[in-house]
Amino acid sequence: MEKRFFWLRSGRVITGLSIIALLVICALFAPWLAPNDPTEQDILNTLVPPVWQTGGDWTFPLGTDGLGRCVLSRIIYGSRIALTVAVFGALGAMILGSVLAHIAGYFGGWVDWVIGRVVEIWLSFPPVILSLILMVGLGAGLQNVILAIIVVDWTRFCRVLRSDVMVVARRDYVAAARLLGFSHWRTVTREILPATLPLLITLMSLEMGVAVVVEAILSFVGMSVGAEVPAWGQMIADARADIYQAPWTLILPILAIFVTVFGFNILGDGLRRTLDTRLTQTERA
């Protein structure tokens, strides 16, 4: 059992999992954790400061925005959007990118050349600009945000994973599997995929952080969820009008994005250090 969960000994992994666990708890139990309705406007209590400042009210622990909406409640409910996009956007990009990476790295030749040229063409477009262009064509909506992330970011997995697949595909045990009559599907799934899985998990974790940032950018410019749905990027956009009178309305959603992305990134770095045997052997040496 200890050998199976050896990666839990990493401080980076524990820190990342703790932050992500907090995010998941906020997303799942938002109706019970949020002290107020995140969309309810209280004109009599606009720009109420956080409780640690003079004039703060425990009814609104982190204060209110320009429309009298509870900042803490909106941050808690905004974690639902962030987590949904992080999971489904990163998962879709991982599936598409890893499938093409394994096909290109395993078969090589003209198959690898075609997929490589597609990746190069795709990477020639700035990711954020390409996401905005896609959202203009697809229209606003959470599903379209997830689709845009998948379409844009699959190249991250394909480019990095392809080289790892090529190295593994040339190992002796893969050649032995082919000599024994293993099909291409069985060779890739039974012999190559287990060797590339640590890198795949690391890239998945890092991509989840990227997806959170992309969603925040799209919601900031009004191309993500509707105005009635709390989202961190939307909170930042709304806070611009009151940045001098109420800086907490801008700082707190930015801090939520930073902590979330930091959690995913440090988890990915911890998994890379513990699951990648090559890196582990280098550090020991």
Number of strands: 0
Number of domains: 1
Residue windows where pLDDT falls under 50 for at least 5 positions = 279-285
From N to C, what is the helix and strand string?
HHHHHHHHHHH
Shape: elongated
Pfam families: BPD_transp_1 (PF00528), OppC_N (PF12911)
InterPro entries: BP-dependent_transpt_permease, MetI-like, MetI-like_sf, OppC_N
Organism: Pseudodonghicola flavimaris
Membrane topology: Multi-pass membrane protein
Question: How would you describe the overall organization of this protein?
Answer:
- With about 280 residues, the protein is mainly α.
- The protein has a single domain (about 35-285), classed as MetI-like fold (Orthogonal Bundle), CATH 1.10.3720.10.
- It has 11 helices and no strands.
- α8 runs antiparallel to α10.
- The longest helix has about 35 residues, at about 70-105.
- It is elongated, with a radius of gyration of 22 Å.
- The chain starts with 10 loop residues before the first helix and ends with a helix.
